[in-house]
Design goal:
single chain; 2 domains; alpha+beta
């Protein structure tokens, strides 16, 4: 029976991918990048490193590892197909990384977004079954894992994150002005789940895309050094990237955390009364959505916490949580909910609680779209069947 199911899945991959080249609509953003850049991006997602060798050889390995066969089309078309399959998906089928994140969240209530997909999948399989299925196509392993974990298919639907929703993040690495240089990536992970109306947008462990914008080394006569960080975007389950910044909601959450004594494993990094002298979060009058650190020997330890907030209402893809996986012990922590949100008023921050936003945030039209958001053209009626084991290679599509 298992062999028959595997054969059916394999034939689905063949039939879905065979028609891809003729149906694909190239994504302008992907076309703008070179084949070498896209190849490196794909390898980073799957393996966590950029491989050596020729593009043809590397592309063949990726396709074999993912699907068990090569895709049709030109090199550029195949690169675009794989990237969209991994990170974008379609209205009917969420991306593979979306599904992998759901599987991790179901098991651990957290994802390891900073780890490569192959490692995350192998660890999940080992934890659940005692052995990895490495050697089989990755996409089939993900679908098999989901079929084992949950009965319902994994689908995605569009929801709105209200503006000014505060989110708690932890520094994953030590940060020091003496060691940093411009362009360095700085890893911050979401400390709690972000959920809207029982739709999981970003599980704990989701990454905040952050980088070092500028560095000024310590000078003579005790002149302090400086490091400027930029908080760019949250990376949730779906392909959209909600922009974030530091405003009143985030600063209030920082103050609440200080009063509660929640220092994480290091310290609280924030504006006003700061736990780390010389570190400040900057709003729109300074470095937008960023952080400024000044001093000669200041270090932000790994595990230190800080808060940012959504900079505007944002429409994103989310996982509708089945009733069997819903919990009732979480509370709303939106310090400044958008108009018409039926939210709890228990405060802007509570240690260990998820960010749960309740109620219909916006009036919606007959298609289910928020009438005051221009970010999407159509609200998808998701009907994927990933939980049952079926899947298809999605065509390319633009990311809103």
């Amino acid at each position: 029976m298992k062999a028959l199911k595997f054969l059916v899945l394999f034939l689905l991959v063949l039939s879905a991918s065979a028609g891809f080249a003729s149906e694909a609509v190239p994504d302008p953003d992907l076309q703008a990048g070179s084949s070498r850049q896209m190849m490196g991006q794909i390898e980073q997602i799957i393996y966590g490193y950029v491989a050596k060798g020729g593009l043809i050889e590397r592309l063949g390995k990726v396709e074999e590892d993912l699907f068990g066969r090569s895709l049709p089309g030109t090199i550029a078309e195949r690169h675009a197909a794989i990237l969209n399959f991994l990170e974008t998906g379609t209205d009917e089928q969420p991306s593979m990384m979306f599904k992998l994140g759901v599987a991790e969240w179901v098991v651990d209530k957290k994802i390891r977004a900073s780890e490569p997909a192959a490692k995350r999948l192998e660890d999940l399989e080992t934890n659940l079954t005692g052995a990895s299925r490495a050697g089989n196509p990755i996409v089939m392993r993900v679908e098999s894992l989901l079929a084992t974990l949950i009965m319902d298919p994994v689908t995605a639907q569009l929801v709105v994150i209200p503006a000014n929703t505060p989110m708690k993040f932890r520094f994953m690495d030590e940060l020091s002005p003496a060691k940093s240089k411009a362009g360095d990536a700085v890893r911050l992970e979401l400390a709690n789940d972000l959920i809207v109306n029982q739709n999981l947008i970003a599980p704990a462990g989701s990454l905040l895309l952050t980088e070092v914008r500028a560095v000024k080394r310590p000078g003579m006569f005790g002149m302090p050094g400086e490091v400027r960080l930029s908080f760019n975007e949250l990376k949730p389950l779906g392909p959209q990237r909600p922009p974030v910044w530091v405003g009143e909601a985030a600063q209030n959450a920082i103050k609440d955390a200080r009063r509660a004594g929640d220092r994480g494993e290091g310290a609280i990094v924030g504006a006003g009364a700061m736990s780390i002298a010389g570190a400040a979060l900057l709003g729109p009058l300074g470095l937008v959505g960023g952080m400024f650190i000044r001093g000669n020997s200041i270090k932000i330890p790994a595990g230190s916490v800080t808060f940012v907030q959504t900079s505007g209402d944002c429409t994103v893809s989310a996982y509708p949580i089945p009733i069997s996986l819903q919990t009732s012990n979480s509370i709303t922590t939106s310090a400044a909910p958008a108009k018409n949100v039926e939210a709890d008023t228990s405060g802007g921050y509570m240690d260990g609680r998820d960010t749960i936003i309740k109620g219909d945030v916006f009036n919606r039209n007959s298609y289910g779209e928020p009438t005051n958001s221009g970010l999407v053209n159509r609200s998808p009626q998701s009907s994927g069947t990933s939980g049952g084991g079926d899947f298809e290679l999605p065509p390319e599509q633009s990311v809103n």
